[in-house]
Amino acid sequence: MSNGQKTRLTVDIYGSQYTIIGTESEYHIRRVTEMVDDKMREIGSRNASLDTQKIAVLTAVNMVNDYLKMEEELEQMKMEMSRVKNRNAANG
């Protein structure tokens, strides 16, 4: 939502209800919360002895790890694109 209007949405994450308020679209909020729920269920199914708080922390750690990897890959791709542009400009 680009007009600054707030989206308010109640979602279920790992069996608990949360009200999410943000400027993003309903689709975006649902996508984010579904990814969190899916990751929590994946971690919970592999570690049945963990409580919800530990599952949530491990989910956060896993998702931030994935984010940082993608951020690093993006930076490498930008550097490679810059090298290619510079090479093309020099050969142009």
From TrEMBL:
Described purpose of this protein according to its UniProt entry: Activator of cell division through the inhibition of FtsZ GTPase activity, therefore promoting FtsZ assembly into bundles of protofilaments necessary for the formation of the division Z ring. It is recruited early at mid-cell but it is not essential for cell division.
Subcellular location: Cytoplasm
Protein name according to UniProt: Cell division protein ZapA
Keywords carried by this UniProt record: Cell cycle, Cell division, Coiled coil, Cytoplasm, Septation
Primary subcellular site in the record, as a coarse category: cytoplasm
SUBUNIT field: Homodimer. Interacts with FtsZ.
Gene Ontology BP terms: division septum assembly; FtsZ-dependent cytokinesis; septin ring assembly
Any one GO cellular component localisation term in the record: cell septum
Residues in coiled coil: 60-87
Keyword Nucleotidyltransferase assigned: no
